[in-house]
Structures
1.
Amino acid sequence: MRYRSVTAALAASAALAFVGAADATDLEVTHWWTSGGEAAAVAELAKAFDATGNHWVDGAIAGAGDTARPIMVSRITGGDPMGATQFNHGRQAEELVEAGLMRNFDDLAAKENWKEVINPPSLLEGCTLDGHIYCVPVNIHAWQWLWLSNKAFADAGVPVPTNWDEFVAAAPALEKAGITPLALGKQGWQEAGLFHNLLLAIGGKDLYLKIYQDKDSEAAGGEATVKVFKAADDARKMAQNSNVQDWNQATNMVITGKAGGQSMGDWAQGEFQVAGQVAGKDYTCLVGLGMPDPHITTGGDAFYFPKLDDEEKSKAQEQLASVMLSPATQVAFNLKKGSMPVRGDVDLSTANDCMKKGLEVLKAGNVLQHTDQLINPDTTTQINDLMAEFFAKPELSVEDAQKRYAEIIGSAD
Amino acid sequence: MRSKSERPNPLFRNLNAKIASIPMVLTALVVFVGGTAWTMLYSFTNSKLLPRLKFVGLDQYERLWSTPRWLVSIENLFIYGILSLIFSLVIGFLLAAMLDQKIRFENAFRTIFLYPFALSFIVTGLVWQWLLNPDFGVQHVVRSLGWESFTFNPLYDRQIVIYGVLIAALWQGTGLVMCLMLAGLRSIDEDIWKAARVDGIPTWRTYLFIIIPMMRAVFVTTLVIIASSIVRVYDLVVAQTSGGPGIASEVPAKYVYDYMFLGQNLGQGFAASTMMLLSVVIVIVPWAYLEFGRRRR
């Protein structure tokens, strides 16, 4: 309610400011990009949209997606839709689309040839339901990164690790120097994210797909997954003294050298950039946690457009969709955000070392679908709850946690 | 004019009052009873993001009662509920009894004790999150005074985190209980006190055996107010711990919200809220039966 009245006030003031401008249409866009790097990136989108003669009304909702999504969904189902809204593409908006609350962009997609330009094609598939395209992917976010603070390892007198195993081995030296080995925000989604990174890096691609695509509970409870839970147990011990909540606070521990490293998606890179740090010199990034044959998952953000009655606004929606995918916007936005563009045909010579590493993996085709696309939010919440408990409760044994994990996977659809 | 001997139809007695209460009666029926029935009906379906009538029997309830997070929530509600009930009544009554001793600056004290109640649970939660933070709050202050080994860290300790929440709730809520109690004490006739003094009954016995039984109505009102705030505790936990560390301070209302909107599983959320209603009914019905059933006899 509070957010709604704020955005309503914003919308009203924006409407006053633009009285008289001939074809400026206000379009409210809701998203949850509020950290420093994210806000800088979203400003690029707003700038590009304003340049078309329309007006971007910013509806930022503070807190992570977990806070923002319920507000967005209840606005759409409650009959007060915004002009456009962020979701992670995948199954979060599935039922809204099925209920006919979202508009499709089949014409625009055909005109601008989205099928050709969007790379990897799985992104557009994530937006497609029954042959219609319902969302505009704007970036590719990969979870599978390990960010390491060069300063922390120098202070502890050990070389910067090149993979997860070395990182675990270096943990005692870090602790001796008074440094928290692993920074981890104590929220379920971050803990589950770390777990999935370990699953893909240590368990491998086949195990990941068996569990999340085929929902194979035997694989989830089996021998191969034991290793992953053992690694999670290591992580649990390494993160014991990490008393922060939000992911960017955890990233800040790495930036300031209070923690050795953090396993977080590539959006963390935006924070390093805002802090003026240089990849390779101040911090080290390891794609796929530095393990051999790295894979990334193409989670990411997409914009969905609720059906609106207003003719003008519907036209503005179309312009916004087109602007978001234009090469210039894609480059400007993604450089600030630390993510990878959704087009294969844009020039990224300005990208930094980390992003180039990610692009190489992308080019090699080592791309999988993110868990958001494979399991529904219900199952995601259950896994988040389990991981929240696992990471906070040292007595919860690896065996018990794995048994419960297998049960959740078994009941997923 | 009809003859006076004809008895008026009881339905039309106080007709104006009855007409005036029709809107509230309708609201109660449609919103409360109707909404409750709707929620209970849909708790037997597999509704996800949007409600749909596809019945799955008791599946949602089976899943609910095998979910560790729900069990933790229920346990927390019990601990929090019982302790909060006892402490707010005891502390509230003691404060009121002290204020009732015709002390000086009574108004100032009353204002100070009642002030926290003017804050929302969200603000209360945030304030106490800082106070109980080991790096900034109480622990830090005591350690900087020289007691280096002092440890008071409830919000980061799974075993006692719910007591950290309880402290904040008591700080916020006892002021109101005190005011209600004070009003009750003031309504007791001075003569009762005089009579007790003449009989040589000590003050504490007067309170315990004469005054408190006379304040029955005030206690019932207070009980209802405290109990309702216990069952719906949500915002305090969200602001103070967001259920953490891990799932150690989860409460049922948060489970309902998280599964309805975050997990996009309405059926599960409805099942959980039906169980919450059931727990209230289990407490209320025997009490109402004793209270009203006895009077009719």
Note: Residues 1-42 of chain B form one domain.
2.
Amino acid sequence: MLTLIRQELYKQLHGKFYIGWSIVVLAITLLSGYFYHNGGTALSTINASGRVFGNGLSMVLIAMIVFASSLLTKDFSNNTVKYLFARQFSRGKILISKLITTVLMFVYLVIITFIATAIANVLFNENRAFLWHDIFGYLIGMAFYLFLMLSIVLLISNIFKSNAVAIAFGIVFYFVSNVINVFLNILVDKMEWIKYNPLNFLNILKQYSVPEYSQLSRLSVTQLEVGSIIWGIIFLLITYVVYNRRNV
Amino acid sequence: MKTLEVQSLNKFFGRKQALFDVSFDIEPGTILGLIGPNGAGKSTIMKSIVGLTDYNSGSIKIDGKELTKNKRSSLENVGSMIESPAPYLNLTGRQNLKLFNDGSTTAEEMQEIMDETQITEFADRKAKKYSLGMKQRLGIAISLLNHPKLLILDEPMNGLDPQSTHDLRDLLVKLSKRGISILISSHLLDELSRIADYYVVINHGKVIKKSDAKSFLSDGLKNIRIEVSDMDKAMNILSSEGLSPVIYDKKIEISDNDEGTALSQVIELLSQSEVQILDVTRHQEDLEESLLKILSEDNSKEAK
């Protein structure tokens, strides 16, 4: 397993993904820090380190969807899967090593966001107040949201052979899931069980910031947390079954 | 102990059966050529051995250890290049080798592999800039990492220039002398015939012939080719005696046996009829001719 993780990290360290997205996350976080702290009365009155961090995390979210979309497909698209599968490692281990790499990539980008938020706070925030509570609130909400979202994206991307199509589909799904969610929320009035559909649990990110969102999701934060984990695990198990059956 | 044992392998693609009870084995330090037409099932067999595709029934043992979907430890001893090389294009050749090294190949051994496969010169260039031949050599270098006991090479000579093909041939022979078993498929039968110790012929997913290289070729008929002063007259005489002559390259060709019975008969018949014999040569079928004949016989059997 350690060999597989080392190999996955080796590929990432020699790729452009982490450098490219580090720059994007850094730039967006610093820019939003500048605008929140110096953007006129309305914005500057808000002590905005939490929001700055949240903006940076939005970029991390997009980055992770791109990352997860191509995580399995890229090997099929480039044909490198032949080397990956023709070895002593089971596909379950290969999948787990890729998931661990995803977590490490998330942690890395969060650290970049955190550093950029701190820099923005020093550079642009006169009173230097740093709202730890807001920052961790975003982070925990994002972790649950990403676990569910990425497990869905992984499962869907598994059906594609082209890396570009998988990434495009992952991004489209991210936006479309919000639209579908709105329709499903309307249906909840008539059929309450619909509130347990996996897309409703994606509301966890919003509900962490705005607790009143529970009126729309019809679920408490705890229910959303538990549900996200259960749905995430189900999607990952299906992903494993599909991945295990793929022939080269 | 045999390095590879394939027994009664069956594989279906949907309802279509692709492999029918395929069985063969490889002894340590030998080279087995897997030959047959396109679509015969050679790549499917190779993919099944390295776990790239499932098989429906049968068994595969590598170095005595059974290979199943979840028991894959036997693949520790296998290096492979299936269909075409597929290195990570954004990495250099050297980085690709480092990536696929499970930790058991030392830096010195890696350098030795690079030298043997002649990739040292371009090892620090990104693989996306490689020609097909360079990728092919890198693919073979990757397959040599981690001390394999069995090498599975699918068309390894594709894209190689004559010198590189010659060097690869030498390398494979050297590896087999070191005790590494090699399962190789190639459409370059002339090249294969210079290194293979055994052949397995596959047609329509079935093994139709297994033989060591020497008897595979000697099984082929020894033909005699005769150049004569009067082709039509000679053809009539030989046909009337039931020798089934055919015209090949402006010469008359007749099948003979090891004792040369037909040759003596032909000389006698033509001398009596005053047809002048200008030249006589004996012709041994090569691997390609033998294979084509075996396939043709098998296809006619199937047609019946």
Note: Residues 145 and 177 of chain B are 17 Å apart (CA to CA).
